[in-house]
């Protein structure tokens, strides 16, 4: 027999060789996420997706920090985006953003608040999640919750005293450029300072007077809560209950006393000339200040219902005399609740709640 040559052996692969090209699937193109505004139903304008499904906020979330995960997220699925964000008409594109959830997914936020669906909403326009367990609310285009019956509470703030908050302890503010019963904060202003909105009449918490709580109609037809005639707002950069980062912003925004006036950090006292009354004292925005001739020197006797009609001028630190006002004549006196009321020549100073705008002096000679 003739011997056969050995079978050829397969050469070992070259470790430096490039692998042969293989076909790979094209990445799936996901649709852009669009946030729009719907005005259907009794809740007024609120955020929805491009299919008209309602979007909600969770008032237990801190800013840019979703607290709803696990079984909560099964009931309240987060709005997730893997592509571009689109703003519908009336939605501020600059306020749309993405945050990373613990599982790495990308959740959409508006004005710093994470957005969610409600699993029980079946059809566009459904709002079954509204006011669920007093924690879930539809989202106003102004960047805050739309509450069914907004609640006002009085809460102690270590630095600022007793101030107005919502039921979760989030600080509320007034804008000194607003006139009584009218909000001048709209558009971009309202995104930075979302108004406290309500559908039904708001509710007074402990320590507050029901008849001082009301509403005004904003330009878009929704109702904003007022206290003692002053529209009240959130500050978008407050991250959690108890924050008061909006205090004294622009010398126009202040937390609110339970008497309905601003809490100044350094209350200004200015001298202003009026045609009829001569030179009078005002605050920085030109609002008239009053004294009560039944007060004794450095003793304020106007409290309770009187202080709601005549809110005291409150300061945290020493007041700031303006041009034409001697610092030697300015001081403070401690009220029963521990707050500091500004005095002039020992006389405690007050506003009059029914003065609608700077320059009004409708409290002159009352009583």
Structural class: mainly beta
What would you call the shape? elongated
* Distance separating the two termini: 137 Å
Radius of gyration: 29 Å
Summarize the structure.
The chain is built from three helices and 26 strands. With 367 residues, the protein is mainly beta.
Describe the model.
- The chain has 367 residues and is mainly beta.
- It folds into 3 domains: 33-133, no CATH class; 149-255, no CATH class; 266-348, no CATH class.
- Helix content is 4%, strand content 27%.
- It is built from 3 helices and 26 strands.
- The strands form 7 sheets. Strands 3, 8, 9, 13, 15, 16 and 17 form a 7-stranded mixed sheet that branches.
- The longest helix has 5 residues, at 71-75.
- 39% of the residues are buried.
- Mean pLDDT is 89; it is low at 1-30.
Give the helices and strands, then pairings.
Blueprint: E1 33-38, E2 46-49, E3 56-58, H1 71-75, E4 85-87, E5 96-100, E6 106-110, E7 113-114, E8 136-139, E9 145-147, E10 151-157, E11 161-165, E12 173-175, H2 188-192, E13 197-198, E14 203-204, E15 213-217, E16 223-227, E17 230-231, E18 253-255, E19 263-264, E20 268-274, E21 278-282, H3 305-309, E22 314-315, E23 320-321, E24 330-334, E25 340-344, E26 347-348
Parallel strand pairs: 1-4, 9-13, 10-14, 19-22, 20-23
Antiparallel strand pairs: 1-2, 3-8, 5-6, 6-7, 8-9, 10-11, 12-18, 13-16, 15-16, 16-17, 20-21, 22-25, 24-25, 25-26
């Amino acid at each position: 027999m003739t011997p056969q040559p050995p079978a050829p052996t397969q050469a070992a692969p070259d470790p430096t060789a490039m692998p042969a090209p293989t076909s790979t699937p094209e990445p799936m193109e996901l649709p852009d996420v669009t946030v729009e505004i719907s005005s259907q139903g009794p809740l007024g304008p609120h955020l929805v997706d491009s299919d008209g499904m309602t979007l909600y906020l969770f008032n237990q979330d801190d800013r840019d920090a979703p607290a709803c995960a696990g079984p909560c997220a099964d009931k309240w699925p987060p709005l997730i985006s893997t592509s571009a964000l689109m703003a519908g008409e009336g939605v501020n594109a600059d306020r749309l953003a993405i945050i990373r959830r613990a599982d790495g997914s990308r959740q959409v936020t508006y004005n710093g608040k994470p957005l969610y669906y409600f699993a029980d909403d079946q059809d566009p326009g459904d709002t079954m999640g509204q006011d669920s367990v007093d924690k879930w609310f539809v989202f106003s285009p102004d960047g805050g919750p739309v509450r069914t019956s907004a609640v006002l509470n009085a809460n102690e703030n270590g630095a600022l005293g007793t101030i107005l908050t919502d039921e979760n302890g989030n600080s509320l503010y007034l804008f000194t450029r607003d006139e009584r019963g009218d909000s001048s904060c709209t558009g971009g202003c309202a995104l930075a300072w979302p108004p406290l909105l309500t559908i039904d009449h708001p509710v007074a918490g402990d320590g507050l007077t029901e008849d001082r709580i009301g509403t005004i109609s904003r330009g878009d037809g929704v109702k904003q809560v007022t206290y003692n005639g002053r529209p009240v707002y959130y500050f978008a950069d407050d991250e959690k209950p108890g924050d008061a980062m909006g205090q004294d912003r622009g010398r126009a925004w202040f937390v609110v006393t339970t008497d309905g006036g601003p809490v100044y950090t350094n209350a200004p006292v200015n001298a202003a000339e009026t045609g009829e009354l001569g030179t009078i004292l005002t605050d920085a925005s030109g609002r008239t200040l009053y004294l009560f001739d039944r007060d004794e020197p450095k003793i304020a006797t106007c409290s309770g219902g009187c202080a709601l009609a005549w809110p005291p001028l409150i300061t945290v630190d020493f007041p700031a005399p303006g041009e034409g006002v001697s610092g030697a004549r300015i001081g403070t006196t401690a009220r029963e609740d521990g707050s500091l009321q500004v005095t002039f020549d020992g006389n405690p100073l007050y506003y009059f709640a029914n003065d609608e705008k700077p320059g009004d002096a409708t409290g002159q000679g009352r009583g």
